[in-house]
Amino acid sequence: MCKRCPWLDETKSDYVEYHDNEWGVPVFDDKTLFEFLVLESAQAGLSWYTILKRREGYQRAFADFDVEKVAQFSPQEEEQLMQDTGIIRNRLKIKSTVTNAQRFIQIQQEFGSFSQYLWSYVEHAVIVNNWQCLEDYPATSPVSDALSKDLKKRGFKFVGSTIIYAYLQAAGLINDHSQQCYRRQQIIDSYSSLGVKYVMSNQ
């Protein structure tokens, strides 16, 4: 029996699959980074599992997370999404997804890729934390504070530090698998061999 992170509800098979195959895996692909940003910003005020269950709905609603297409959604298309039961029907969150797509493209144009911009916040090396129990996990970090502040300055919405910390965890810029979790070292070993750098946190 594999030991997993203390936050995971192992009675939910789709949640276990997400934890085992995606959470904390380093992401460098802009399309996936946009997808995770859409999903994490939709999470604001809700549980992550609420969004995870609707992932396919978001994929359909937001053009398979094609940032160029989402950036061009019209007010009419935004209004149509208010009738879409496959997503969270929150007007501000729907509008913010379109706005964030537009800002995402601006960053791509400025830095060459969103990935290049994002990974610069961890100096292109995964931060590995040393959490043991659920109480150890923080809601934010200095990195999420700084990134959140810059994203807000650039016009992004629903990108508070708590959301951004969850985003960094999901996209693998921070490896927050607990010390007991089998995925912690597995991811480090797999991606170190591919040239990904890791920095062990003092926390």
From TrEMBL:
- Positions the record marks as coiled coil are none
Classify the source by domain of life.
Bacteria
**What InterPro entries does the record tag this protein with?**
Adenine_glyco, DNA-3mA_glycosylase, DNA_glycosylase
| UniProt entry keywords in alphabetical sequence | Metal-binding, Zinc
Task: Give a GO molecular function annotation for the protein.
Answer: DNA-3-methyladenine glycosylase activity
Q: Name one Pfam family in it.
A: Adenine_glyco
One of the protein's GO biological processes: base-excision repair
Q: Which residues bind Zn(2+)?
A: C5, H19, H177, C181
Say yes or no: keyword Phosphoprotein present.
Answer: no
Q: What PANTHER family does this protein map onto?
A: DNA-3-METHYLADENINE GLYCOSYLASE 1, DNA-3-METHYLADENINE GLYCOSYLASE I
Name of the protein described by the UniProt record: DNA-3-methyladenine glycosylase I
